[in-house]
Amino acid sequence: MLHGLKIVVVMPAYHAEKTLAECHAAIPHDIVDEVLLVDDASDDATVAVAQRLGIRTHRHAVNRGYGGNQKTCYALALGVDADIVVMLHPDYQYEPRLITAMAAMIASGVYDVVFGSRILGNTAIAGGMPRYKYVFNRMLTAFENLVIGSKLSEFHSGYRAFSRKVLETLPLAVNSDDFVFDNQMLVQAHAFGWRIGEMSCPTKYFADASEINFRRSVVYGLGVLRVAVTYRLWKWRLLKSRLFCAAPENRLTAMQADAP
Asked: Are 159 and 186 a contacting pair, CB within 8 Å?
């Protein structure tokens, strides 16, 4: 706990058997109260490894996609009464030791959302990020900052921390089940006025780390552009969108995790 607040780490997993144990070992368990893993119908030993490590595990019967996995992650975290939720990919691409700092930024009451930026600190290329992805990241981020009116270093990091209130109120249930979920969630947080902080986070690109291919990257990029334009039209009251409607039916419902 930090300041008496329960810290829960959620891990959206797919084919993570080779990296899960090392990633889990690097988590600062002295402040993390619980780790939850959601396996998205992997056909490897991800679930077996998670259970061996004593991680509370939930497995999708069918593959629901990266966004669908996150929806389950956050619903489970709400179900175990988390006050602060940190999403950590189990492929060990992001640095787990920064969980303490990220959670503290929320526990302090200064921020509601915090993400680890690969751009701050100029570590993305050094960590092995493909140059085309780096260029796309910078171009899409510049476009979004201009259209949305924000000043973030990037919108595309998958390393994030949220207060419970954010997860309870954002209309996450209507978001995509694909990779653009991450972007929708961050734009929603901006739209609803949550305080967003970022910190430098080194990342590693290696053979066993999860990575989407060029075609999926293009699809993701087009989705990002659509989210930004939708936000601007919604802001100008020219378009209604469920992405920015906090009606109860658009929010996640807390659920309980399966015991390992």
From this structure: no
